[in-house]
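Q: What structure does this chain adopt?
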Amino acid sequence: MTPLPSVDALAADAIALLARLVAFDTTSRDSNLALIAFVEDRLRALGVTAIRVPNADGSKANLYATLGPASAGGVVLSGHTDVVPVDGQPWTSDPFTLTERDGRLYGRGTCDMKGFLALALAGAPVFAEPDRLTRPIHLAFSYDEEVGCLGAPAMIAEIARTLPRPAAVIVGEPTNMEVVHGHKGITSYYVTVTGHEAHSSLTHLGLSANMAAIGLMHSLTMIAARLEDEAAPHSPFMPPHATLTIGQMQGGTAVNILARQCTFVFDLRCPPGTDPDTILAPFLEETRILDAAMKARFPDAGVAVVRRSRTPAFAPEPDGEAERIARRLAGDNGPPRVVPYAAEAGQFQEAGFSTVICGPGSIEQAHQPNEYVERVQMERGAAFMLRLAEMLAGTR
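A:
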């Protein structure tokens, strides 16, 4: 068996791989298949067969693979392959070309979260070496996390059905290589209000979708204010309460036409133990009443509400095995930590897996122009991967 590489050597390999991964434009609106094929080729060269879990039309895919023996008690390294758009952002370098300046590695997805994927792939030759591991490492790479954690559930179901039970799942969202054991859940909805067009001076002959939608949006702002007022005094989250925001809205064709259609999208982010359905029940009842009233005036009018996504919250696990493992690997003896964003950790936990979040980079750099991960974070991540190999070889 060959000796383990040094931290510096593994970090250098990971940064070279990060450059390759950043070069794939995997913005969520586009396909991720070129990146998935690249990963498959890397693993195939190591004698590892990866399994795709595609979306309905085959334009995107999750991928999972096992390195080491097919036995229980392994560790899943999970991350998403998609990134957010760069449209309209004032980047000072090409977002799809890795650029290093002053110890920072710039590029879209460097911290969120291709840095973690690069570290896992850099470790793959070590993990896949025959007879090195006594328990396996499973890679699990998803699509469409950034638009509602839409891809991972199908892959998680297959992992639960086909793989020997792992001891822990480590989701590599950016946490500065510190262990996080909780996040809020997110539920999002599309609301479409359809009115009846008429001249804007003849309001009795038409029905403005915009005016009706404003009333509904006002109701949501009232819910948001109530949630803030009812914040739990000792919540570990910041902000401490469930939050509700309207992220997009569009409506109308001209200033002097009663708008035929108005659409808006909102999201509700709830701490563990808070039920989004209970919070939204009065609003959804209001939309049903409004829909009936609009249809009574104009049969083609009304309100349609469609749930866009629902990602469960991730709750701290008492004596969680994943947290114990990740703290050991990261050398983290700090206080318990939670984050306000949603991730796929809640989905793994919901499927019954002990789960934790730990990855390179800071969420404060995610989704920004000039997104970056610090080189030192990649070095800490490399040390984490080498300790993981030692742990699953039974030498730590």
